[in-house]
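Batch 3, record 17
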Amino acid sequence: MAPLKSLERDYPLIDSTFQNFCASHGIFTVEDFLIHDLYLLAVLAEQHNNSEKLKQGITQVLSIIESRCRPWLNGLELLDDVEQNKHALSTGCERIDAFLQGGIREGYLTELVGPSSCGKTQVCLQTASNVARKYSGRVMYFDSGNSFSSKRIVEFVSQMSDPANNQANRTIQQVMKSIVCHSIFDIFTLLDLLHQLKNSLRSQMGCQVRMLIIDSISSLISPVLGGSGAHGHALMVTAGFLLKELAHENNLAVLVTNHMVAGEVGVSKPALGESWKNIPHVRLLLSRDHVTNISSMSILKHPCLATGKSAEFVIRRGP
Amino acid sequence: MAPPAPLSVTREWLKPDETAKELLVRVLTERPFLLLPPPLHRLPFRVGNVVEIVGTSPCAKTLILIQAAINCILPKEWKGVQYGGLGRAVMFVDLDCRFDVLRFSQLLKRRLIGFRAKVKGNDYELFTVCMRRFLYIRCYDSLEFLATLKTMHCRLQKEKETQAGGVYLLMIDSVGAFYWMDRALSSSSGSNGRKSLSLQCVVETMVQEIQRLLSVHPMLVLAAKSASFGDKQSTTEVIRNPGKRSYSSVLAMDFKSGPQNSLHREYMPSVWQSFVTHRIQVRASDDNSKHQNNSTYLTEWLLPWLKFSDKFIINDDGLLVIL
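Prediction for the assembled complex:
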């Protein structure tokens, strides 16, 4: 946060006397202001000869902090925002859409958990192709395992569209242009890219982003978790909150995948541990029967649907 | 030395301000007792209490908060129909950033429809009145949260003036959300008397600010908290119950209720722990007999420690306590 010196230009009340007074009590930045007792500071200001000006300076900084805060919303405003801005994006598979009451919701962080080769990447690719085809705006695909396949995207699009040849080509072109794929292999690159995305969306430059897919987030976070330090968990929680902020403030749908690890007594559990559990809005468990090729999706956590509900679907393989 | 005060002033000062009866009436009006909906119904609360709802995810902590909020924003009586609410505003600070307003409005609507046998129409008007009493803000890190607390006084003042009476409930969901981020905050040079930003510091400031707010605006604080997590994924302390393994146990929590509540390990600093006046623990029951396909949850009061626990299920109408 800003050092007090930088505020002097725009707010003349925060002059050098005020800054010296603050420095004498260990306050150098706006951040320090937040962790100090302001009433105590005002009382200490009384003892100075220009106490009025100092107290006005304190009020000034408080009002700067207030202007940077988000506004309080009431229930009606929240409801309006959700109904107008946060729609459900169809995944391309009717059964999943029906199960999730419309699809992957904007503003939510949705997590797909499942053992390896249960079809998580296929669901991601299908969703990416469908969202790029049906809705305006880009799809950002962060790939950590080199599993993104443009061929597969083309297959999905061809399955969906009608076989009028000319149109099909144009649709494919448009879809391919809308999907932006980044390969990332560590959490620091992920955080960097997320910050860049946040800044570019905030400044309204470039075009709108509809969906962000990270496949898989667990392979980026697992290497830093573990050990006795808190830094791994801090990075994970920071990434989680950044994703939620992107989702909510920019009306983005965020889809991440997670793998499974061995839990107690032979039963698998989702990776990333207890601290991650609280972060996604929606957690879905995927599994696939390799013999019949029927996949099953069940709910681990959802704000509206009951835990344990499940649905079956099939992801069609290419020709 | 200042001259001694005249006798009349001293006599004025010695006179009593109010009688004990007047004091009691005043205190009970300004700081009344509140009875919250189940599962928090076992104890009466007064504004100024801080209630902590602890549980591992997924359990119904946010739902408990929502039910209490709905109870608070509903009016006591509206156009002849008794709703039995408190008719006051609620402030919800969302630190988990996972609040779902659709579920909230769905539950409120169901509650209103439940009384429809008596009144037709007017429901939407009441719905808007109630929704306007629900105030919401979300914070994505501790600094935003501290900034919100420091600037909340004006908002509370405004609320007191516009609505009849101020805010009764302050909800924080959930209190340990930024625990890991704060723990890893590097203490930037503690030299030249500068307070370094750390978990201890953030929680101390948070408690101090809330105490200040409570002294001026009497409110009941309901804070949800995720149950403890350790540094490592240590599950060795949980008393295991072999033979209950199945695929469905991935979906349900299977913690055995030992006599010592072995799973609830406190991770918030002691300044928060001593600030909390009541604590209730919620967890999914490991009882395999599902009540009509809904999982059961158990609640247990830890502070003050009551010997029995309540059971409830979650259905479309919200929380339902079963006996």
